[in-house]
Amino acid sequence: MIVRFVIVLAVAVHGTAITATVNGSMDQDRPGYHITLKECIETGLQNNYSVRIMRNVEQQAVNNATRGNAGQLPTLDLSASYGGTYYNNRYYYPDGEQVSASSLNNNIQAGVDMNWTLFDGFAIRANYQKLQELKIKGELDMRLTLEDFVASVASEYYLLIRQKVRLDNLRQSVTLSRERLRIVQESFHIGASSGLDYQQAQVDYNADTSDYLAQAELVNRSIIKLNELLALDDVERNTIPADTSIKLNLYLDKDQLWHNTLKNNTTLLKSISDRTISELDLKRVQGRNYPYLRLNAGYGYRQYWYTNSTYDRNNQFGPTLGASMGFAIYDAGNRRREQANARLSIENSRLCQEEMETTLQANLSSLWMAYDNNLNLWKIEKSNLQVARGNFDIAMERYRLRELSGIELREAQLSLLQSEERLSTVEYNIKICEISLLLLSGDILACEL
Asked: With contact defined as beta carbons under 8 Å apart, do 322 and 299 qualify?
């Protein structure tokens, strides 16, 4: 970022003319890119790394939610092998005679085998339902990431607007201080004011210029932060909000927000999903209380070669079919232990859900209190700003007529600047409360911010 300021001062003593001008420009050498909040969100949804990573994680959950992964479908294997054995046998007879014989046997095998669990106490069905619930949870994780991203982009977008509004206010303050300095210069030149008045005007002018420079840095930081959220290649791009002021939603309804929170809050929906998964885990464990039934079938070919036998070769081919059924009578108490733990997990999930509802209600109450209080402050500060502007206009006119001292004019100027700052702060606070309330109620993706 390039921030250039040119300060030209010509100072002389004892009545010689003194001039001071400030020409400020921020990034004038680079073009500005005007962008709306909607365009920021659309760009970020395509580029933001967290969103892209979570999109891949969501796809993994979708890929896993299949009947085959749950064990409902049979498996089919094709296998082939070739092997051989070599024996060198030595036989000892009672009369001391020794006979040696060797043999080489080769074999080749190939076949197709199918295995299918037909019934395992409903555990397979519970596994499939769990995979489907994990898929839903993956969608909720993705939704939560999108909601957090939209809230972050909107907050940073309106923060940048607030910072630019404050920069404009400080620029106006510099202009007013420069005008005051010009007036006191003329007065000093004709001997109508003292050097002390000039020095005070110069100090105030320099202070306003310093504040402007510091605020310009904050604007640049906010621009970089917004560009980072959008994952732009050039994080120093001069991004300029298309909006010049913060748009407020003054008509939120607390009861409707709470109703939507219980229905749509993503974190609460994830808590409900966790409870469902715990219940399915219990069903899966309870499946071990039943017998299992498995089917296996195959078709194979086998051929054996012999070097020392009554026949040289043996061929075998044909189908095989079998079924197995079993029941775990005793497993050292593990089944009972797992079921007890699964019931405790369900209870913990229920408690977490209730705790989440209480937390959401508390957060909604706190945010609504802040939202409502800032709305009242906003009405007061709007009225104060009108009074401060009128007061400063009168003070400036009296100062030109030399009916008001520089200190009194400075007080009116600071009062105007502080009033503008308070109004800007209140508007930003209202917007942050609005964004937080919509995020809490699960409406942030559906509402226009």
From this structure: no
Q: How many domains does one find in the chain?
A: 2
Q: How many CB atoms lie within 10 A of CB 127?
A: 21
Q: Decide: 121 and 288 in contact? Cβ < 8 Å.
A: yes
Gap between the Cα atoms of 428 and 448, Å rounded = 16
DSSP reduced 3-state for 449: coil
Gap between the Cα atoms of 223 and 163, Å rounded: 10
Where is pLDDT greater, at 402 or 218? 218
CATH code for position 59? 1.20.1600.10
- How large is the average pLDDT for residues 324-345? 90
How many CA atoms, within 13 angstroms, populate the side-chain half-sphere of residue 134? 20
Q: What's the rounded Cα separation, in Å, for the pair 128 and 123?
A: 9
Amino acid at 205: Y
Residue-range definition of the domain harbouring residue 170: 3-65+120-291+327-441
- Predicted structure pTM score: 0.84
Over range 49-66, report the average pLDDT.
95
Q: What is the CATH number of the domain that holds 90?
A: 2.20.200
Choose among 6, 3, 32, 4: nearest CA to 19. Answer: 6
